[in-house]
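Handoff note, outgoing to incoming analyst
You'll be picking up this chain. Sequence as last confirmed:
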Amino acid sequence: MMDLFSRLEASGISTWLRTSQSLWAFPFVLAVHTVGLGLIVGSTVVVDLRILGGASRIQLKPLEKFFSIMWLGLALNTISGLMLFAKEATTVGISAVFWVKITLIALSVWVLLRIKRQVFDDPLVDQRPIPGGTRALALASILLWVGAITAGRLMAYVGPTQPEAGGLFGS
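Most recent structure output, in case you need it:
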């Protein structure tokens, strides 16, 4: 696994992100990652809070349009996240905090898909009460995103800072 991480880190785009002084390199990719995060988490939390009972005068069905914003945010984060990972794959790839973050994101997307299916695929969504299980999913969604964001920030402060330190896939 470390061989794959080493090759990824030695790639041209990774080297460019690490060494370029251009604002179009690392600062731009990091900004895109932040915007993507704002799009997916912001729109998801709006839908989750509505499911939990907030702004109850607003019908749920029109909020389905937020899913296109969520998918755009997820796409931006996936592309920029892969680039950021490649930049320091041998360090990030052995970080348990990184893998916690990725797991929380995967669970968040799974919960989002369940909410989409349970709420927005129901043509009578605004004519019946929201089931308790769906409310639990909305709360779980918020908590999972808080965990993923927290893990993402902790990556800068917790865990190995040198590949030689070992870690999840280290020697």
